[in-house]
Design goal:
The protein has 138 residues and is α/β, with parallel strands linked by helices. The protein has a single domain (16-137), classed as Rossmann fold, CATH 3.40.50.2300. It is 44% helix and 20% strand. It is built from 5 helices and 7 strands. The chain has helices spanning 25-37, 48-57, 75-84, 99-108, 120-137, and strands spanning 7-8, 11-12, 17-21, 41-45, 62-66, 90-94, 112-115. The strands form 2 sheets. A 5-stranded parallel sheet has the order 4-3-5-6-7, sandwiched between helices. Helix 2 (48-57) runs parallel beside helix 3.
Length: 138
C-alpha cells in the first residue's frame, strides 16, 4: 500500500523530490532510507560534479549535500542549485562542524548546515521548514 495520496479534490499530488549527494555510501544509504521512509522521493548521487550536472537536467524541490571535505567539495552542487533555482533549499551536511565552511555555505545560499549524525526528526524538520519557506517565496 502506498503512503502517497493520489489526489486531493481530484488534483494530482506530486511527491517532493530531493537530491541527496554524499560520497560516503553508508551515510548516503542511511539518509536516503530515512527520507524515503518519511515520504520523500529521493535520488542519490555519490559524485559532486555528476550531481551538479543532474540539477541542470532534472527537477528537484530540495538538495541535501555533504560538505565533502574541509575544502567544501559540495560547493559545486550548492552553486549549481542556486544558479538554477534561487528558491530551491540546499541543506549542507558535515561530518565535523567547520566554521569557515559554514560561513561560506550560508553566504552562497545554503538554508541550513547540519552536523552528522542527523536524526530523522532533525532532517525532516529541516526539509519541511525550508520547503514551506520556498513555497511562500516563490
Amino acid at each position: 500500500m502506498s503512503r502517497e495520496p493520489k489526489s486531493v479534490r481530484g488534483l494530482p499530488i506530486r511527491r517532493t523530490r530531493i537530491l541527496l549527494v554524499d560520497e560516503d555510501a553508508r551515510d548516503r544509504d542511511h539518509y536516503c532510507r530515512m527520507l524515503h521512509d518519511s515520504g520523500f522521493a529521493v535520488q542519490t548521487c555519490s559524485d559532486f560534479a555528476d550531481a551538479a550536472r543532474l540539477l541542470g537536467t532534472e527537477r528537484f524541490d530540495c538538495a541535501i549535500v555533504s560538505q565533502g571535505s574541509p575544502r567544501f567539495r559540495g560547493r559545486i552542487v550548492l552553486e549549481q542549485s542556486i544558479a538554477g533555482d534561487r528558491y530551491r533549499p540546499v541543506v549542507i551536511l558535515s561530518r565535523h562542524h567547520d566554521v569557515r565552511c559554514y560561513v561560506e555555505a550560508m553566504q552562497l545560499g545554503a538554508v541550513d548546515y547540519l552536523e552528522k549524525p542527523v536524526s530523522t526528526v532533525e532532517m525532516v524538520r529541516a526539509v519541511t521548514t525550508h520547503l514551506q519557506s520556498r513555497r511562500t517565496a516563490a
